[in-house]
Automatic annotation (TrEMBL):
It is a multi-pass membrane protein. The chain crosses the membrane at residues 12-35, 47-71. Belongs to the Vang family. It comes from Halocaridina rubra. It holds the Pfam family Strabismus. The gene is VANGL2. Keywords: Cell membrane, Membrane, Transmembrane, Transmembrane helix. The keyword Cell membrane applies. This is Vang-like protein 2.
Length: 90
């Protein structure tokens, strides 16, 4: 019988996934409000700038995920020195 009844939740993975979801949802929401409401004023350049800002935000999240991955795998390093008891030689 396993002790756990629910699946494990990986905190860093869940945090990065939620950040990606929030960023993507908010950018699409602003896209609908900004671009779709002003169809006659929309220029290709403004759409490209908006897409570039989304790519920049997602790239920032990727950098953050790599840093969190590295922090998770940092473990203390130990050095063990063995001494022979009769003469103290290592």
């Amino acid at each position: 019988q396993p002790k756990a009844t629910m699946p494990r939740i990986f905190i860093f993975r869940a945090l990065v996934t939620m950040l990606i979801f929030v960023f993507t949802f908010s950018f699409w929401l602003f896209y609908v409000v900004r671009i779709m409401e002003n169809k006659e004023e929309v220029r290709y350049r403004s759409i490209v700038y908006f897409a570039v800002s989304l790519v920049d935000a997602l790239l920032f999240i990727q950098y953050l995920a790599v840093i969190l991955l590295e922090l998770r795998h940092l473990t203390p390093q130990y050095s063990i020195k063995v001494l022979r008891s009769p003469d103290g030689e290592s």
